[in-house]
Every structure is written in structure tokens, then in C-alpha cells.
Design goal:
By secondary structure, this protein is an all-alpha fold. The protein contains five helices and no strands.
């Protein structure tokens, strides 16, 4: 194998090490980023939906409470509380629909199904309460327990997703620690290989040139050629030796022609 080929292979080997290390780093960084992104896409959305549902539920309760404690026993709600009720209802239903399409955790589907059923019962009770202004017995016996039950169901969904965020964050930290360990191991291996290359190739080249330089000096001595080479550069010694041999051969050829 030619020296040029060996040098090319050695340099190619170094580039392979560099690109391998860069590729592994890019893979793990992308993986960690994807895991973090999944937390934001799934669980964080469910948490936002839960908060919005609690806000809408609170507005609905405020509206119903205004009916119960209304001084005039009419079945009609004021425009303000009517709008507040409809606004809270729309917020709760919109976010409940989004939560139904964003089920990601174990047992979350059961909580969502229970929430759907409880909301239907709660909504019927709300409509019933609007027509019985001042009927506090129904408010305390039926409405408030239904409200608390629905609120607890929403909180269950919130808790499930918060626990998932914490769990996945811990997994991400664990993966990050593993990433640093793997990078340290791979980096150490690549460093050792690179150091081995930097040690081997100079030694290989210098030993080859030293061998050729010594052979050239011995050849000059055996040929009876006087030389005065004052350099430690093996390549320069070889070149000077070749020049001296060429001169010696040229003189012999000239002598043979004259004879």
C-alpha cells in the first residue's frame, strides 16, 4: 500500500470519528428536545383545558347562585348573569371537547368519560335551577354536591397530567444524565483513537524515513562516495544521497565513454 493511500485512510478515519461524534450528539439532543416537546404538546394542553373548565364552571355556579339569592322570585335571570352563564358554559364545553381529543395518560380516558356524564347531569340541574329562583333547598341538596363532584373530576384530570409532567420531566433528566455519560464514553473512545492515530502515523513515517536514510548512508559508504551531510532531516539525507549517487553514476558513464 502506498504511503499516500495510508495517509488518506488515516485522515479519513479521523473525519469518520468527528462525524460519528457529531451525529450521536445531534441524535440525543434531538431526542431530548422531542421528549420535552411532547410534554408541552400533550400534558400541558390538558392542564390548560382543565384550568379553563374550572373557570367556566365557576362562572356557571355564580350565575345559578344569583338565581337562588334573587330578591324577586322570578324565573328570569338578569341579562348579566344570563350572559355569564352562557359564557361559562361555552368555555367549559369547548375545553371539554378539546380534552376528549387529547387523552394521553393511563386512566385519563376513564376520568374524561366520567366528566362527560357528570357534566350532562350538572347542565340539566342548572337549567332546572334557573326556573326555581329562591329554591335554596334544591341548591344545597342537589346543585352544590353536583358542582363539587364535577369540579373534583376536572381536578382529577388536572392532577393526572401534572403528575405526568413531573414524571416525564424526571425521565428527561435521567435521559440527559445518560446522554452526558454516553457522550463522555464516546468522546473518550474517539479521543483515544485520535491520539493513537497522531502517535502512530508520525512514528510510522519517521521510522520509514529513518530506515531509508540509514540505508542510503550505508550505500554511500559501500560505494566509496564521500559525503558531508549535516542535517537531521531524513528526507533531506535521502535526497542528497540520491544526488550523490546520480553524480557518481554520471562520472562513471563519462569515463566509460572516453575509454
Amino acid at each position: 500500500m502506498k504511503l499516500k493511500t495510508k495517509l488518506s485512510l488515516g485522515l479519513g478515519f479521523l473525519f469518520v470519528i468527528i462525524f460519528t461524534l457529531a451525529g450521536v450528539c445531534s441524535y440525543y439532543v434531538a431526542r431530548l428536545g422531542q421528549e420535552s416537546d411532547n410534554i408541552l404538546k400533550n400534558n400541558y394542553k390538558s392542564i390548560v383545558y382543565s384550568r379553563n373548565m374550572l373557570s367556566g364552571l365557576g362562572d356557571m355556579r355564580t350565575s345559578i347562585s344569583s338565581v337562588i339569592y334573587s330578591k324577586n322570585n322570578t324565573a328570569r335571570m338578569s341579562d348579566y348573569y344570563l350572559k355569564l352563564f352562557e359564557s361559562g358554559k361555552n368555555v367549559l364545553e369547548t375545553n371539554l371537547k378539546e380534552a376528549n381529543n387529547n387523552i394521553t395518560e393511563i386512566n385519563e380516558k376513564e376520568y374524561i368519560e366520567g366528566l362527560n356524564h357528570e357534566y350532562e347531569s350538572f347542565l340539566k340541574l342548572c337549567l332546572q335551577m334557573q326556573s326555581v329562583a329562591g329554591e335554596s333547598s334544591l341548591y344545597f341538596s342537589d346543585f352544590l354536591p353536583a358542582y363539587e363532584k364535577l369540579k373534583q373530576s376536572i381536578n382529577n384530570i388536572y392532577d393526572v397530567n401534572m403528575q405526568a409532567v413531573v414524571r416525564k420531566s424526571e425521565l428527561t433528566k435521567h435521559d440527559s444524565a445518560n446522554f452526558h455519560r454516553y457522550m463522555a464514553m464516546i468522546g473518550s473512545i474517539c479521543l483515544l483513537l485520535a491520539l493513537g492515530y497522531f502517535w502512530y502515523f508520525p512514528v510510522y513515517i519517521s521510522s520509514t524515513l529513518s530506515y531509508l536514510s540509514d540505508k542510503m548512508i550505508n550505500l554511500l559508504k559501500n560505494s566509496g562516495i564521500t559525503y558531508d551531510i549535516k542535517t537531521s532531516d531524513e528526507a533531506h539525507v535521502i535526497l542528497q544521497g540520491i544526488n550523490l549517487l546520480e553524480n557518481k553514476l554520471g562520472i562513471k558513464k563519462e569515463t566509460m565513454r572516453k575509454e
